[in-house]
């Protein structure tokens, strides 16, 4: 190479341009990262603003809102029946999904041989996690609501939600069961324990905080799901408290959905208030999951240090 | 401890050893059953959708034909279904062309991808290459909240803020200048501008618009792109970066020419995941983009996605046995096949990037 070209390559102009390019690029990246943040702030501000407006413009009795059943008259409509229905859904969903998911995770980590069946189960999990939630609703609508003739009851909604969250809980459970050190299992075997005794009394208790955290996060997803419940045929107007798993119902998100479609403007305000209640539940669940994770993370750390 | 073996501990003698083995086998079978349920779910989804969709196409469910001897009559042909341009199975003069709602889904998916892919990738690059550990640890969880917010809240946000403030604002701004300037410019390119302007002006920005749907779905899928892309970028070995720096590359060159190509299969996997989520997204698109099955490219128009059709049918209680009820499953099957193929593709890409660096 000639010395002239080398001189050009190292000249100040190029360096300055490079520096400028770097700065512009950096700026673009920062701006893009802020987009999500701005949308999040706008979304939360909008919900708070709309519910504050509703409280100011209409004479809403908060206690009545939180305890009453819904009504076709906005002034009397409340969220209480939907809150109770959502709690029922959570309990039933958690019960069904937890057993299946932990069982599946234990099988995959502790028992499964390395063969085609196992690979099929693992590949299928990745697929299930990507199935749109509305499709689970369609499945339950056809199989349970109509073919089995159970009707649009809370249990049917809970089955749809359980199918939806099982893959999420399985992934979390597999991670925390794998995190239990092999030496702990070996210690148990050395004491003469059988495989199942080791799994049940040593591995599971150690993995439980992680499994519970995953379950709570999965339930946080389920509590906000609307589409599968609408497909299952949820009543869109919760005019009475659900009496049990076999009652028809409207959960929090479906009640919010219904209110946004009412002509009376006051219903839109009620929807915003409903969203605040729903988001409060979510924040509570995330906080609980975070607390569990933090609390047991330090314990787990001390074990692995030994 | 006592030298006497505890009963039931598994080492107390042949009998209880056999019992312990038997118990282990039973437990193993029960746990396998749990795992099998997940596979059964997939098979059940496919069979149930297929069975009910068969009634839509052939007038009888496969299960009915097998067990009750119902005969198949071809009622709706696949050609009509897949190529027809009008979708109105519930109309008095029914039409069974699924294209408009497939287009609605594609429009939302492509549009959302145009929002979440560049923004998500840039965010991932920032988090992985530029941000300090402190910033990264704070920003990443905040962004992940976006994916955790219920989609109905996004729908409400679209109705109460995005459409009235943003979409209306843009539409008024765009329509007025073009509309007023139409006479002076139209003789230059009449064929191009007139339909455009007419289309813009003809679109009355009402409660629903494609643009609002695109914005909310794009926003909620940003963390899927940014989180997974960032993981892929973090998996790129530092030797590659340091080698480039040693050759005199700047940070910007390292980001774009080393990290991005090296992490490309993981990054593409995140794109596929985000697009797959956008295809199946229901509440936000239903509430933001509306219920009008229409082949339109105007972002201010109301459209209908496949998921919005499902919701609109389920909302008004659709009676079992009607063609509307059967059409739910035909659309559901199509939706399931679409997302299934995306998931398989995503899985393949993810596996490739994991093999390369781990």
From TrEMBL, chain A:
The lineage of its organism: Archaea, Methanobacteriati, Methanobacteriota, Stenosarchaea group, Halobacteria. Residues 83-288 form the ABC transmembrane type-1 domain. Belongs to the binding-protein-dependent transport system permease family. CysTW subfamily. It is a multi-pass membrane protein. GO terms for molecular function: phosphate transmembrane transporter activity. GO terms for cellular component: plasma membrane. It comes from Natronolimnobius baerhuensis. GO terms for biological process: phosphate ion transmembrane transport. The chain crosses the membrane at residues 24-49, 87-109, 121-145, 151-174, 270-292. It is found in: Cell membrane. PROSITE patterns: ABC_TM1 (PS50928). This is Phosphate transport system permease protein PstA.
TrEMBL record, chain B:
One of its GO terms (cellular component) is plasma membrane. It holds the Pfam family BPD_transp_1. The keyword Signal does not apply. Part of the binding-protein-dependent transport system for phosphate; probably responsible for the translocation of the substrate across the membrane. It comes from Natronolimnobius baerhuensis. The chain crosses the membrane at residues 30-50, 101-127, 139-159, 205-225, 258-279, 328-349. Its main location: membrane. This is Phosphate transport system permease protein. PANTHER family: PHOSPHATE TRANSPORT SYSTEM PERMEASE, PHOSPHATE TRANSPORT SYSTEM PERMEASE PROTEIN. Residues 102-346 form the ABC transmembrane type-1 domain. It is a multi-pass membrane protein.
